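Quick note —
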Amino acid sequence: MMNSDNAQALYESGVYLEQQANPPDFAGAYQRYARAAEMGHVAAIHNLAYLYLNGEGVKRDPDTALALFQKAAAAGLPQAGAMAEKLKNRS
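Predicted structure written out below.
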């Protein structure tokens, strides 16, 4: 699956690993979201931001999370913009 060039398939696999697998596989979700994000998949960028924000599957990094939320917002995802504003206001 990791060799897939299909961003949507990578994203969906990441969602499964993060939200439906028991136990969740955050590291696997991170890998898939990161690959899909590199391909410009906006929802993957958004979900990747949450992994960074919460330190799930990757070292916690609120600054990277903010940058990713802003990137997803710039690509047209309004909920990412709202989250970016919340993070900026916490500083």
